[in-house]
Input
Amino acid sequence: MFGFRSSAAKDSSHCLLKEVGIAEINKQHLRLASYAVEFSLIVDDLSTHEPTNQDWRRIDALFSKIMRYVATHFSEEEALMQKYGYPDYAAHKKLHDKFSAEMLKLQSDINNRNIKFKKKMSSLLWDWLYHHINEIDYQYREFFLSKGLS
Ligand SMILES: [Fe+2]
Ligand SMILES: [Fe+2]
Output
């Protein structure tokens, strides 16, 4: 288990990422988590005022960065699963696709400058992503370790 603290997380369990057995993937998870923190800082800033044009530009930039990195991370994870014949690949990929579809929906809220994106994105990043890493990704740990990955 490794982790960090963020004032935006609802409780300490949201800050702790389980390590999934593959150093490179752990690194990618940490980077995703750091983007979630970056997003929370923007949300904290917006608690006192409506987003200005400059805020929206920051949000656009962060959101594109997260979208790109999520896509890279998912495809690397999926490639490993396929390479080693992970038995739950199809179900896992479905969850990745669902997350990506939710992100796309969110992108249209952001493009339309709809402030609702704050709440939706918070729950996607903190609840969905952490749940995915700690509960779903964690399930492949033993499998990859048994294949000699580390
Ligand atoms: Fe992952
Ligand atoms: Fe995953």
